[in-house]
Amino acid sequence: MLRLEEARPRVALLGAGLALAATVALAPVFHPWYATWPLVLLAVSARRTTWFLVPCAVASFLTLPDGTNLARSTKAPGAIVVTALLVGLAVWAVRAARSRRATSPATARS
Question: Which of 45, 60, 71, 75 could form a disulfide with 13, with the two C-beta atoms 3.0–4.6 Å apart?
Fold first, then answer.
């Protein structure tokens, strides 16, 4: 007969909470209240809750009580930063490809 300790329901809930957190974090569309969903499963499965304070504090600021959220004030600056990073990455990749091509042994012989 399977005892409750052997079934380890906390481990299953922790796995479900982590899977839900990964799904929310890697989803193509992210609404701020999605970050609160895994917190329910993680709170139920937690033995100690001290580590749980930081994710709860962050999630509470993602969705504010008046319906607004911090994403509204960070959308435009974030888009500019991401665009600048992508342009910088593209420039770096082109320069790296050119320097590899210039120093390759095939071009040095000809």
Answer: 45
